[in-house]
Amino acid sequence: MNGVLGVILAGGQARRLGGGDKALHEVAGRPLLAHAIERLEPQVSRIVLNANGDLSRFDAFGLPVVADTVEGFAGPLAGVLAGLDWAAENAPECDRVVTVATDAPFFPDDLVARFIAATENEKTDLACAETGGRTHPVFGLWPVRLREDLRRALVDEDIRKVDLWTARHKLAVVSFPVLVVDPFFNINRPEEVAAAEEIFTNKK
Description:
The protein has a single domain, classed as Spore Coat Polysaccharide Biosynthesis Protein SpsA, Chain A (Alpha-Beta Complex). It contains 6 helices and 9 strands. It has helices at residues 32-40, 76-90, 111-122, 147-155, 162-166, 190-203, and strands spanning 4-9, 26-27, 30-31, 46-50, 65-66, 96-101, 126-131, 134-143, 171-175. The strands form 2 sheets. A 7-stranded mixed sheet has the order 5-4-1-6-8-7-9, sandwiched between helices. Strand 2 and strand 3 form a beta hairpin. Helix 2 (76-90) runs antiparallel to helix 4.
């Protein structure tokens, strides 16, 4: 495989969808997390979930669940670091981590391949996604060798914005086409659930 660990950031709350875990909210008859796993699995060597709280609620998915390794709610960068730490300790064959959000069920099926190609062609450390001039930094490729640098940024400098940290390193911004739908369309509201279900129906 490609030596990339897939990390699904599954800690979001579904406040505008009635509460609970957004990852477990059903769209088109399946939890959002199931859609994310299906889309990511062919692209990576292994998958782990990043979430906090009672991790047993994800037992049915049969994947390792890793909590943030930085205390307090530190945002998506904490999830990135948790994935980097897990890879270093449990998956030595994976020298890179790719992160995806659990609430974007249409992310590209060539996401990882294009990230790898961009970092190699542009000789960069990191990669993130873009559509229509808007970056999606939660969808990124991160080398395990930068985990201590990220830990210092989170713990010692209290950095929380992804862009502030990635600006310190060489970053490839990979542009993806918007066809029927923006591939990074994410679900926050009931009307977005309805839109996603219509897209799934039309794809059958």
